[in-house]
Structures are given as C-alpha cells and as structure tokens.
Amino acid sequence: MRQPEEQGSINLRYAQALVDGLRAAGLRDLVLSPGSRSSPLALAFLRQPAIASHVLVDERSAAFFALGIAKAGRRPVALLATSGSAVANWLPAVIEADLAAVPLLLLSADRPPELLGWGANQTIDQQRLFGAHVRSCHAPGPPAPDFEVGYLHRLASRLLSECCSPLPGPVHLNLAFREPLLPAGAPPVGGASDAQALPRAGRPRLLPDGQLVAEIGAAISGRPGVIVCGGDDWPPDFAAAVSALARQLDCPLLAEPLSNLRFGGHDRSRLCVRYDAFLRPPSPLAAARPEWLLRCGNFPVTRTLQDWLRANGGALQIVLGADSRWRDPLHCAAALIQGDPLAVCEDWLATPLRPAASGWREMFAQAERRVAALAADWRSREDFEGALIPALLDELPAGHNLFCGNSLPIRDLDAFSGSGDKPLRLFGNRGASGIDGNLSTAIGIASEGPCVALLGDLTLQHDLTALAAAGGRDIVVVVINNGGGGIFEYLPVAKLPEFERGWLTPQTVDPVAAAAAFGVAGERCASLDGFTSALRRALQRGGPTLLEVLVDRRRSVAQHRAFWRQAAAVAGSPPATT
Question: Domains in the chain, ordered, with CATH?
Fold first, then answer.
C-alpha cells in the first residue's frame, strides 16, 4: 500500500508550482525577508533562477525596497514574509503603492485556519489585513495532496494581471501552510512544472471620451490658460506631446519635478519651473486669472501653487489622468478626462487649437527669466539649501536616477531645480508623502540603475537600517542635516514654546558613523564646494556612499525667506528701459 505523501513535500510542490506560474507570467523580482512559515515559498523562489531574489531582513524596509524596484522598472515586484506581525510591517509601503499606483504582489505565509483564534503563537488574522489598500485579496487555503497545478499557474497569471490593470497597485495572496513545512532531510532540487500555456491578459488602454475631449478643446481654444503637470508615471512620449500642446495654445506649462518634464531633449520653450517664487505676492502673477486650467496628473506639491489653483477656482478647471481616480481635492474641476493622456494631447494637436492672445504667456516667461537670473546669483551662498539642488543636478550624468525625499527636500527641488537638456529621471514617494521608507525606496531604484537619494536628516534616521541593503549598489545618499524637522520652521507651530521638543526634534545621530557601521563610505561636507567635490568623487567611484551636508538651519530659513521676497518683487518689476 502506498504511503501518504508527507505534508512537507506537498507544501514544496505547491510552492514550486506557484513560483513556476509567476515566472511564466513574467515576474522577475522577489524581495524576501527570512522566516519559518514562509520556508516552502522561499526555497522555491531561491531555486528559480529566472526570478531574482533580494533578501532583506527588515520587512518594512523590504516592502519599500520592492516599491523602488517596481517604480524604476515599471513592472510588478513580489514580497514574501512569514506569518504574524512581519506582514503588518508592509502596511506603510502598501499604502504608498496603493496611492501611487505601483504594482506589488504581497505573498504572506500564514498558519493554517485551525490555529487562528486559538492562542497559537505568531498567529494573527492576516486575511483582509490591508483593507481597501489592495486591489484584490486571495486566500486559497492550505495545500492539499491533490491540488491542481494548472489552477496555481492560472492564479499566478491572474495575480500579476490584477497588479497592473485596470489600476496598478498591490495585490495580496495569503498562503497557509501546515507543518512539517518542508520535506524531511535536504529537499531535492527539481520538481519544476511546465507553466507555458497561461492565459494572456493584456493591459487595456483606457480611451478618453472623444466628445468630452472635443468640447474641452473648443472651450480652451484661443483663450488665456495654463497647463499644470504634477507627478505621475507618464508614457514616454507624453513630454513631447504636452509641450507641443502648450506651444500650440501658446500658454505657460507649469511642470513639477516629478512630472519628469523639466529635463530632457523635448521642447521646453513654454516651460515654467520658478512658479513657487513668481506666484507669491507681491508678484502680479499671484493675482493672474486664467480663463482655463488644465491640470495633469497628481495634485501639486507646493503650497504656493495649491493656493494659486484655489484662488482660480472660478476658471474652467480640467483634470486629466490616465485612470479612474478623482484627483480634485479642491472640488472645483469642471471636467475630468479619464483616459490615455497621450491620446488626449494627440487629439487636441490634430484639431488644431488656436493660441491665446499675444502677451498672455509672455507675462509668465518674463517672470520665469527674472527669477532664474536671481536664483543664479544666489547659487554661491553658503548655508542656502536652494543652492545645493542645482549643484547636485549639474554633477549627475545623463540618464541618472534621482530620488528626492519628502518634507523640505522635495519642496526645494521644486523651487530650485531649474531645467535642462540633460535627461534625468526623478522619483519620490508622493502617494502618502511620508518620510518612512524613503531610503529603502531609493536603494530599490538603485537595483535598476545608479541613483542619488536626496534626504533630510530625520528621513534618513527614520529608515537608517536600509543601509544594510546598500552594499553592491550604485547609490549616493545625500543627507541635508539642518538639525531636525526644518520644514516646521515655515509653519505656525514654529512660534510655540514647545516647538523644538515636539516638532523640530533635533537628533544626535552621526550619519557618517552610522553609514560606516553598515560598511558604507561616508563623508561630511561643511561647504557647498566641498559637497560638489565629494559628490563627484562618489559618482566616479561607484558603489554606496553617504554624504552629510551640514546646514545652519536658522540662516537657511532666513535666506529662503529673503530669496522669496526678492523673487516676488523681481518677478513683478517693470521691464528695464534702454
């Protein structure tokens, strides 16, 4: 009589079938955090050479690391962790992936259902753990001896499809395993299953409502308006198309850095990137009232631009996005065009639309030129964080990746990056805009290509253990150390007597020493010239480096405010006479 198959062998065959299906469906990367209950899947992945397994001990860091790979590679990345609170550590990254529409496949190992609710160690209710932050959740139950290999292959194909369409984001597969988890002794290598005949699920192209597009085109043609482009994962040809649209309408194009419209060889003749300065009073452009506003992608980062959009709530505001999300926090959109943004631009370019009256765009262009000239004068000032941004960008090779952390760095990047012909790819975690996991995300991006991460000192400390994953990757971490939460200096809480203790929270961590503890080269820069030289050396050397840039916070705050005052005044001054 044939002996029943051992549970460990069933688990491993099951895991191998699922992993083979994921490979056949196109999965290329797994980020694995070690654990016991996940052993069948971990072993199956480690023995699958077509899927790269990245091992990170910290589940929270691992999830953001996977987010970085998925962002840079524009493809789904899988996460694997053991049961219990390990899985809960993914939540911040899952929220970011949800809001930023980044495809992640969450593979959580679990205890079998007979242990749930009975006081078993390391057992929590993992089903629906991520609530509305996942596109779907699957829990097929523990492997049985007669499981269907074909079902697992098709499930794998479905999971990756759901990660990508119709709205990219995280998908959760909760897999329960009974003990023994693996076969007794050393599990033999092999057991791969053929998973070539999988159902093909394409990524549909959401086409916009043609009649609505035509009506909006007629409404904005020949009238003064502004195009505002926020951060988004735009299709490759979008920069050229929206720039051509701005040229045809002869309107200013206000582009945030994460729109990736500021750098590259496309037409930038209508581009305005100094709006954080020239839309502030007393600049007359702060009171400019366009008849229409076309807002593409995510809502803007900077308060100045947000307030200006709010002040123009009476204009015809149109929101253009590639998916079904409603991106209208001001509740003033007259129309939402949901569909391929490249197709929308191409439709309008084919009409064609008439330009605005002469002089409308020139007001913005003149202010742009004047603020750019003023910013050039400020570049040599020490302790001015705004001078660090263009110095950093000048040193980056063409095609380099830059990840910008949240809080003050992303706002300085918005205000002071300028623009140029050199192609660069800029990233940030602006879905939930937290400072958690920023370094891990940047190191994940560095797995796809060389990357510089620009972070604040608190953002670094919040994710310091991510440096453990930096080895062997071309990542330069630039830490602006201004002694705590410098962004709060610009908010009303700065006037409270409890400000330093409750908001500024200056720390005593030595970033360079911390980097050395993780085997990462470090250098402290006390001047702008010193930083530029150190960055140049780090880029030439390759590998991981941390550069700490010391900034006098009080002096920097005073200089920021002085620059904004001067810029607003310069933007509104009358033209020089000859």
Answer: 7-176 (3.40.50.970), 210-368 (3.40.50.1220), 384-551 (3.40.50.970)
